[in-house]
Amino acid sequence: MRPDDEIDHLLGRDHLVLRREHPTLDDALTRACTRGRIARVLPGVYADRAHAEDPVLRMAAVCRWDPNAVVQAQGAAMLTFWPKLAPPSTLQVASVTQHRPQPGFAFTRRRIPAELVTSAGPVRLTTPALTALELATTEFTDPIDVALHSRQVTLATLYDALRTTPQRPGNVDRRRVLLDSRAEPWSHAERQAHRLLRSEGITGWVANRKVHVGGATYFLDVGFDRERVAGEIDGRAHHCEPDVFESDRARQNALVLDGWLIVRFTWLMLTREPDYVIRTLRHALGARRLR
What region holds the DUF559 domain (predicted)? Predict the structure, then answer.
């Protein structure tokens, strides 16, 4: 087989060719890269030009290039609990091996504990718990909220990740975020609602309360079991898709017929009219208690 044909065969198999794995192709790879037939991803790592900028391929490339590499941050999030996250322009990679800077990659000299490393195909990456924990800040809690909503993490696994990575810069703030997450919110709007309820001393509620109605399973954003009152939180990007709009109405009908009183609040209500939210909720709870 001609060298160029062999390169094409290897690229057709997994879109990557490593020079060290095919020493007989050394000169052919150099010529193909010079002519623009293939693209350099990392030193000695080549891809066909159509896939060279694909973030998942680049993650696979760095893990083949360095057996100690672990993808972290946004790259790890998009491969696990946050598939809708926009691909990062620069992949964050941890490794015990010291590397020079490479275009599109940022390397951190760090050993990730084995129990906090997982894999997605050929890509080694930080677990969802560690990924969410390290992406979150006191001002940007979305990573933890999205991870909890995906049910790929729990509050317990988040605390385990924090304990397993002691003395990391930022751990004090991460612990604060976890304390603020004690009711396990699934969105920033739900987190805001939980803060409001706690600040007003309202108790007896369960976040993301699972209920079974007519063979279907639903989750109430905030459920008061004793009064059978549900507080539904409509976030800033609430139910834009037509199919979600329709299913949400059917869901509410089923819950109402099952005896739940549902009150709905928006992000603007929570942030600009918190008194209205609390007043409405107290009214609903009081009406049910009178019954």
Answer: 187-283
